[in-house]
Amino acid sequence: MVISPLRNNKIYGHQEAKQLFLDSFQNKRLHHSWLITGEKGIGKATLTYHFAKFLLQHPLYQPNNLEISTRNPVIKKIEGLTHPDLIIIDAEIKDGEPRKQPTITIEEVRGVIQFLRLTASESKYKVVVIDGADYMNISASNAMLKILEEPPKNTIIFLIASSAFKILPTIRSRCLNLKLKPLLFDDFKTALEQNLENISLQEAEELYNITSGNLKLAVEIHSEYGIKFLKELEHSLNSNSIIDILKFVESIKTGQENWSLVKFMLLKSIINKIKSSLNNSNLEDRLNYFFELQKKLIEVETFHLDKQHFILSTLS
Predict the structure, then answer these.
(1) What phi and psi values does residue 257 have, to the nearest 5 degrees?
(2) For 163-201, what is each residue's pLDDT tens digit?
(3) Whole-model pTM?
(4) What is the pLDDT of residues 37-78, one digit of tens each?
């Protein structure tokens, strides 16, 4: 089971990012705005919420590390969404319920503006977390830009995004960009052992290779599908046999979780083929196919098209 980032107090890997943040804090050069990027599931939100907890837990003195105490009432308030000096906007969740489509609206950013007009009541800092900042519409982005241009004193803003390129350049230029790297295998294996029971070294290695060190995806794969499903999917992606493809497509349930995995693996397969074509004449064709596939994926999700038919037409 994957613990929600807000309530997950164990951080695996990302040593460079953690050290940079701690050094900035200790040297009293903490940047007012941080853009934390990296692929989905890599641990961006977990690390960001850890930073927020650290700041709100240590308002008056300089600790030597980023450790937090889960027994501290401050942490309980944060995890219960009742801390008065913290505001969280999540592109995928609103009022505790999943949104129909990921988005962040101008009304929500205006709520941040109102929040920042109030003086911090329990901490030195006012902390803002925008999880899914790459889903801000243009009006929300412009409103956020105004905040970043003149942030109130002792305000720390964290923008979390899978891709920095989906963020307005004017916003990026006002943030310290912290791009998270994939976990090293040792960190990945340790994290798996904490989240899954009886995980073997071979399974850990297979999951690491398949997910490129994406911990969230690896846990979901092992818990929901198993290694066998992944091997069948990889085989189908690389198979020229229509019989193999048909058997696999018939076995797929097209619920949201399965669909997310299949979509990830489809794109990963094409990216790997593009990398293998960097020095030959197939590169342009495979790039065009990749962009066409992305376009079709958007159409399938937007217009609720038959996912099994899409998978079959893509693989065959």
Answers:
(1) -65, -45
(2) 888 899 999 999 999 999 888 899 989 888 888 877 888
(3) 0.76
(4) 988 888 899 999 999 999 998 766 667 888 888 888 999 999
Distance CA(305)–CA(301), nearest Å, equals: 7
User: What Rg value do the Cα atoms of the chain yield, rounded?
Assistant: 21
* Structural domains of the chain in order of their starting residue, each with its CATH number: 5-179 (3.40.50.300), 185-315 (no CATH)
